[in-house]
What does this fold into?
Amino acid sequence: MALSEPAPHPAQEQIRPAAAGDSAFAAAARAVALRAPLKPAVPVPLPAAPEAAELTGPVFGTADVGPLDHDLTRQHHGEPIGERIVVAGRVTDRRGRPVRGQLVELWQANAAGRYAHPLDRHPAPLDPHFTGAGRCLTDGDGRYRFVTIRPGAYPLGSPDDAWRASHLHFSLFGTAFTQRLVTQMYFPGDPLLPADLIRNAVSDAAARARLVSALDRTLGEPGRSLGYRWDIVLDGPSATWTETGGAR
Amino acid sequence: MLLPPTPSQTIGPYYGTALPFPRGGDAAPAGHPAAVALHGHVRDGEGAPVPDALLEFWQAAPDGSLTGAPGSLRRDGETFTGWARVPTDRDGHYVLRTLLPGGAPYLALCVHARGLNRHLFTRVYVTDPPPGDALLAALPADRRATLLARPEAGRRDTYRFDVKLQGEGETVFLDWSAGD
Ligand SMILES: [Fe+3]
It folds into this structure.
């Protein structure tokens, strides 16, 4: 972990029960209970009609993403605190074809486990040099790359003191609206992984394992950062998918 | 042989620093004479507003084209990109300003929210759907109605579309994964 864990400051001890206590967790629990539809989603027969809007999707370009948007360590005048990392990989469809020129968005807590978001009441320090949001476009081979710092773990405020493992939130677009993906990436060997409630919402163990990145020394910047590799496979049909005979 | 897909995970409560962008809900070019407003509430299983949902729309242009245009995150005020992203406010309300689609008579909608392990796809039919629309025809009448935007009485060029995530009046959500 990037930040050493000193004994809690007395003032923080007093803040915690009120700030990160029952109400925040109750809101999360309510969302889990009352937001998931009760009826099964209606299957769209595939291959879908060629005029179905969902088989195509939004287009992004260099106007959408600045040259430094992928580097979360260079968005302020000073360097953020924490362990610098590079996270990179390849985005493909299920046939292994690269997803080119599409938008990848990233957001995360700082090294102390705090989001620069007004709703985050976890009494860990904010970092004036870290917002924790970045974006990039995939290249001609479907590759993306971010420079950032390793996020800290944070508590969920639950009665049994459950904590989130370190994670990065990712948002991805494919060539079709149906390929949209929002997910989270984890770090290998994190002792909090087996008990992470959000990760465990994925019931299949093999699928859960695909959310964990791999240390890849070739991706880091020598003497500056360690690299983690995380490849992403987008699901769902697209216009090109059905052209080639459908997914069945 | 297909690669196994990366699983989806909830968007959580803290996406606000990263995903919303200026004029994200203004798909229509500024001052466009044919612009319409689509608005409504997102509600949970008890009817309470969902103040932290993120709605993404994708649609055909008025001429029916589905090619989109780059610049979706940097509105230049002139280009219609076909894509919009709008978070709900504290009352669970959203407003989209857009142009009515040609061709496919609906807006594709993707709903993200804390508590959902996976986003939800649905459709907002904003113009009179053709009688032969395969999806609408396959639904019972009460469920079909959840996909139809209603012209707002007394307000020109304004449509209402509410999203009910769960329970009575639950919106029809679509499953695109049948291809596996
Ligand atoms: Fe998080």
Observations:
- The domain at 64-233 of chain A is CATH 2.60.130.10 (Protocatechuate 3,4-Dioxygenase, subunit A).
- Residues A 164, 167, 169; B 12, 14 surround fe (iii) ion (CB under 6 Å).
- Chain A touches chain B through 84 residues (CB under 8 Å).
